[in-house]
Design brief:
Length: 169
C-alpha cells in the first residue's frame, strides 16, 4: 500500500499531514491459562519520551511503502516481521490549529515477544516499557489489540475512536 498524492495537490491548500506507521508489539501473559480464564489482555510495548508513551513507530518517508516503514521500525527494535505485517487499525488525528499537524497512523501487528526481548537495546533519550491496556495513552492501540486478539476487521478511527463515536459524534 502506498500513500498517493492527488494530481491536483499543487493547486490545493492542504494542511500538513504526517503519515506514521506504528507497531503493536505484545508481551504474552505469564500464565496463558490464567490469561484465558480471567480474560486479561497482554501488555503492549511503549516507547516513552518526555513522559509520553506511544507505540514504536516512524514517519513514512517520501516514496516509502507502509510495510517498508514497518520493517524499519522492526529493524530498530531487533525483531522480525512477516513480509506483509497485518494492518490492525488506521487512526486519523486532525490538526490542532498551528500547534499540531494532521496525523494519519497505520498500526500494524508487531507480533509477540518475550518481556526481556529489548533489555539489550541502547538507552538514550527514550525508555521502553510494557504497559497494561488500561495504561495505554493512545486509545487506537486498544482497538488495534482488540482487532488482533479477537480477529475482527481493522477499524478506521478518528481521534482513536471508531467513526461516529468520537468527539463530534
Amino acid at each position: 500500500m502506498r500513500i498517493v498524492r492527488s494530481v491536483h495537490a499543487a493547486h490545493q491548500a492542504n494542511p500538513p499531514r504526517e503519515v506514521w506507521v506504528f507497531l503493536l508489539v505484545r508481551c504474552p501473559a505469564e500464565d496463558p491459562k490464567y490469561f484465558q480464564s480471567k480474560g486479561l489482555w497482554p501488555r503492549v510495548l511503549q516507547v516513552v519520551r518526555d513522559g509520553w508513551g506511544c507505540p514504536p513507530g516512524v514517519i513514512v518517508q517520501a516514496g516509502e511503502s507502509i510495510p517498508d516503514a514497518a520493517h524499519r521500525v522492526a529493524d530498530a527494535l531487533g525483531i522480525r516481521l512477516p513480509k506483509e505485517p497485518a494492518l490492525l487499525a488506521v487512526d486519523q488525528q486532525p490538526a490542532i490549529g498551528s500547534e499540531q499537524d494532521e496525523e494519519l497512523a497505520f498500526i500494524l501487528d508487531g507480533g509477540t515477544v518475550a518481556e526481556d526481548a529489548f533489555a539489550g537495546l541502547p538507552r538514550g533519550q527514550v525508555e521502553i516499557e510494557w504497559s497494561a491496556i488500561e495504561d495505554l495513552e493512545r486509545v487506537a492501540l486498544v482497538h488495534a489489540l482488540r482487532t488482533r486478539l479477537l480477529g475482527v476487521e481493522p477499524p478506521l478511527l478518528v481521534e482513536g475512536m471508531p467513526k461516529g463515536e468520537g468527539r463530534d459524534g
